[in-house]
Amino acid sequence: MRSSARAAIAAAGAAGVLLSGQAVAQAAPPSAGPGAPGVGDPYYPDYGNGGYDVSHYGLKLHYQPATDRLDGVATVRARATQGLTRFNLDFGLAVSKVTVNGRAAKFRAEGQHELVITPPRTLRKGRHFTTVVTYGGVPSAVKIYGFTSWQRTTTGGVAANEPESAWWWYPSNDHPRDKATFDVSVTVPTGHQAISNGVSTGVRSKGGWTTYGWRETRPQATYLATLAVGKFDVVKGRTPSGLPYEYAIGSDLPADVKANALTSLKRTPEILKWESGLFGRYPFEATGGTVPNTKAGFAIETQTRPFYSPKFFAKGKPNYSVIVHENAHQWFGDNVSVHNWKDIWLNEGFATYAEWLWSEHTGQATAQQLSDETYNAHPAGDAWWNVLPGDPGAKDPFADQVYDRGAIAVHAIRLRVGDRAFFQALRTWQAAKGGGDASVAQFVRHVERVSGKNIGDIIKTWLYTAGRPATAPGH
């Protein structure tokens, strides 16, 4: 994610109201019990849920842009990792019905974003089960912790944010540790488009409505799922390597913004080819990007189809750096996701360093020069140095320091181990951890194993120690 105006997560707010269903739970065997209401992330303990692992989300949605009304049926396939008498999904819209394995289940809203489900029969450990949730509401009107991650646009709406965006459009086990595959079907008024992740599974129209299908077959974290509905100028094709791409730019954006956005997006295949040489084979089956007419000030690495604010293209020229950044995340953040949100440096430090490498690659400032420039921009005593990229805090995990001081840390590692070992470590990291999640500690061990060199002092100095280090890397 790269933002021009990052805001801290609000501390309070009200979630949408969920309606209760009716069912009777059978007595549980002694080994069974309720699943945890969170995965225990140190920053966001109630994000995600315990007791099960999701394998697939099937979403059937109906959206009316004029009223921002979203109705849906979510089919969640999962496996119980313990005996379950009840379990939670993270969600904020109003729910009218829940079934588990085809039988009506009892459910209730709890806290800010918990949908608590009691199946009619206890789910035994290891059992695969299917939960179907029927729901609806106006996503932009639902505030959780004081905000909504659903963005109204002039012609529709967009779901794109982190660390939370799923709550406003589908129920999920909302944490990067639990990835799944996705099928998304979205029905919208004819004349509008609906864009999500992965490859298109078809478009069909009937009676003034058009349904768009999308499929993501590679493991995807819940916050990386996206939905953009509106009126877009769409450019489709295939990259030289055969990947299908789709670029969607808000039709009512200013002409110069649209031109700059399209010029920038069209370099995606070239950028992906270059990044593949650094990080390893591109891990997904499609690519592209969306630029809706939204007031948001950030871009985010929604899997295969990054979201870009039009503000990135409103400065009179194309912006290739943001394309490089969000597509670097397809490896660092999407293919290998954070184990905890505290590990966010693994996403943002490396995506920012990819921008520095691109600058070097295209004959502009070298990574060394950009590292020096960043270091020199913040003198000793500047409070900027007090935010730790390895532990930025839950209030603002996307602070500038995670990106920029974090990129200096990456450069320091590169200098310590040398280019050959550095890029070998990046490629083998993707091969070893792709499709899953990882922590900073695991990355450090991996680099040291590949390079044969210790980087513990670099990690301590640049990620976990407040204050300006005495010297910049390379000096």
UniProtKB/TrEMBL annotation:
Pfam families: Peptidase_M1 (PF01433), Peptidase_M1_N (PF17900). It is an enzyme of class 3 (hydrolase). Residues 55-224 form the Aminopeptidase N-like N-terminal domain. The keyword Zinc applies. GO terms for molecular function: aminopeptidase activity. It comes from the Bacteria. Its EC number is 3.4.11.2. CDD domains: M1_APN_like. Residues 1-25 form the signal peptide. Residues 319-462 form the Peptidase M1 membrane alanine aminopeptidase domain. Keywords: Aminopeptidase, Hydrolase, Metal-binding, Metalloprotease, Protease, Signal, Zinc. Its cofactor is Zn(2+). It catalyses: Release of an N-terminal amino acid, Xaa-|-Yaa- from a peptide, amide or arylamide. Xaa is preferably Ala, but may be most amino acids including Pro (slow action). When a terminal hydrophobic residue is followed by a prolyl residue, the two may be released as an intact Xaa-Pro dipeptide. PANTHER family: AMINOPEPTIDASE N, PROTEASE M1 ZINC METALLOPROTEASE. Belongs to the peptidase M1 family. This is Aminopeptidase N.
